[in-house]
Amino acid sequence: ATPISITTAAGRGAQAGVLIKDAEALERMARVDTVIVDKTGTLTLGKPELTNAVSLSNLTSDDVLTFAAALELGSEHPLAEAIVEGARERGLTLPKALNFEAVTGKGVKGSVEGQQVALGNTAMMELLSIDTSKVEADMNTLRSEGKTAMFVALEGELAGVVAVTDPIKPTTSDAIRDLHSLGLRIIMATGDNLRTAQAVAKDLGIDEVRADVLPEDKKALVDELRATGHKVAMAGDGVNDAPALASADVGIAMGTGADVAVESAGITLLGGDLVGIVRARKLAKATLRNIK
Ligand code: ADP
Ligand code: MG
């Protein structure tokens, strides 16, 4: 390709929905060797749908879903929307939850109809000293299908399981192939379970998976790679991703995501899919040839 100026690159980028903050962001993008991508909302649509509601007690599966969804009315997490929407589709009436509390990266808890309800991952159950070993095998089956499976606890006892699936964006697979051919290593970082993450990564040819990652761990991963001489781009959409975006050589925000993510980024992708990273990389390389 012919070398192009920064102004031309910025203009071409903008036309394609790739907003480049400044010359520095573009220059750094040309030197990146590793791209870390968040799973939910970046590789996937970020619009999970309820697939399973199972009772492990004398409740019906609808009761389990009602308790879970009542609690999730208080949460803005994409998982919460999927559970509430799934309950509404089944025609369930949701009572109000009291004392709602969200535990970042783990789940939610509160009281519904006078009962203590908790919903979340293994770490959430560990927090409440609830033993999950007898259902881990079934959970693993759901996870290996790429689903996010969550425990529902009632009064400190395991009461059921709900699972959701978040479809992969139609453009993700080709974009990852293109990023590979541009010489980049792709690492998935997600707060989701390792099995779920691996099931999603396998079909996409992702090079490395970091799962069960808390928001502060995403930043630590960026710092660790940079400390070992790598040039890192981090792509994400959530409030959770903002610290990692700010620490990366290039922060790439999905324009469909949280404002704070956009503010922390050197590049914003209006289209909200990985094709924008391919475009940004090509523009960056074409520009750098001109600067040098
Ligand atoms: P991600 O990196 O995929 O956005 P989070 O860090 O937000 O993940 O959450 C990690 C895990 O914690 C989720 O996969 C889920 O098991 C649990 N969790 C977080 N928030 C909720 C919630 N509102 N309801 C149920 N589970 C939750
Ligand atoms: Mg996310």
From TrEMBL:
Record key words, sorted: ATP-binding, Cell membrane, Membrane, Metal-binding, Nucleotide-binding, Translocase, Transmembrane, Transmembrane helix
Major location category of this protein: membrane
Record flagged with keyword RNA-binding: no
Subcellular location: Cell membrane; Endomembrane system
Keyword set includes Ribosomal protein: no
Family: Belongs to the cation transport ATPase (P-type) (TC 3.A.3) family. Type IB subfamily.
Record's protein name: Heavy metal translocating P-type ATPase
Organism: Aliiroseovarius salicola
Residues of the full protein shown: 439 to 730 of 787
